[in-house]
Amino acid sequence: MDDATSAVDQETNTEIQDALVKARRNRTTIIISQRVPNIMDCDQIIVMQNGQITARGTHTELVKSSPFYAQLVQTQLGGDYID
Q1: What class of enzyme is it (predicted)?
Q2: What string of pLDDT tens digits covers the 83 residues of the chain?
Q3: 54 neighbors 47 (Cβ within 8 angstroms)
Q4: Which candidate, 49, 47, 39, 43, places its Cα nearest to that of 1?
Q5: Cα–Cα dist 11/15, whole Å
Q6: What is each CA distance from 37 to 33, 40, 80, in whole angstroms?
Q7: Alpha-carbon distance 56 to 54, whole Å?
Q8: Is the separation of the CB atoms in 45 and 61 below 8 Å?
Q9: Three-class SS of residue 66?
């Protein structure tokens, strides 16, 4: 969805993401994204670097245990989402 939503404004992107949250309730959903806000509320996040899985967990777990994920959060969102 990153490429599909890259040309829309933030308000439209938020509306799309909200609709997706509703659509995936009570379903197993695989989301592939480079944008942290699109995956922060997922039950499990898998972090990949150079084609390898390097970490797995919730957003809160990963900001503490994965330097790579924490750096993505810092770069994309600033310090507000580092728990």
Answers
A1: hydrolase
A2: 556 667 778 888 788 888 888 888 888 988 888 889 889 989 999 999 999 999 999 999 999 999 999 999 999 988 766 65
A3: yes
A4: 39
A5: 6
A6: 9, 5, 12
A7: 7
A8: no
A9: coil
β-bridge partners, 55: 47
Q: Are 18 and 10 in contact (CB under 8 A)?
A: no
Residue-by-residue DSSP string for 1-44: -HHHHTTS-HHHHHHHHHHHHHHTTTS------S-GGGTTT-S-
Q: How many Å apart are CA 72 and CA 67, to the nearest integer?
A: 9
**Of 20, 26, 24, 27, which is closest to residue 2 (Cα–Cα)?**
20
Single-letter amino acid code for the residue at 26: N
Domain ranges of the chain: 2-81
Q: What is the pTM of this model?
A: 0.76
